[in-house]
Amino acid sequence: MDGLCGPGGFAQEYLTEAVRIIQQLDTDAIERAVGLLAETRKRGGRLFVLGVGGGAANASHAVNDFRKLAGFEAYTPTDNVSELTARINDEGWPAAFEGWLRGSRVTADDLLLVFSVGGGDLERGVSPNLVHALRYGRERGARILGGIVVPPVNPARITPHTEAMQAVLWHLMVTHPRLKTAPARWESLQ
């Protein structure tokens, strides 16, 4: 043991924090989010998933699951590298996601799902692309789903816990009885 953690070491400490986070999640808010997703799908709206860094990787995976397991028409700007980099080059990073939503013709029937550790902050230059995209989506009447839902149990590990919980939550959603339309391949073999 290196003296940095108690009995069980770092692994025990990290996993204990993850359990504490899961126990503190607002299940009523999660059920409301599922309801919003179900309403969006029912009216033929599309799901646009936005994220940067680890959130971008999560967005790509989530789009796959929402399409394949829950029957959504779902997209993320980070899956089209050529368009994204052209927009960054031509319009700048702050406008890249907004331009992508504009090109996608986002409407009031659509839903924006945001994967972010702390949201955006224009004054501090934090995720300005998300701030501009959400502002544009709001102007178009799209609904927005996201926010800081992961309780910070350890300030030194906010990012890894938040990004891990994003995966827990979208997997919960795509397998929720109100949203799931198809079994995952492994489960279909059982």
From TrEMBL:
Q: Which residues span the membrane?
A: none
PROSITE patterns (alphabetical): SIS (PS51464)
| Record-annotated SIS domain positions | 37-190
From the Swiss-Prot or TrEMBL record, what is one GO molecular function term? carbohydrate derivative binding
Annotated Pfam families: SIS_2
**GO BP terms:** carbohydrate derivative metabolic process
Q: What is this protein called?
A: SIS domain-containing protein
Q: Which species is listed as the source?
A: Candidatus Segetimicrobium genomatis
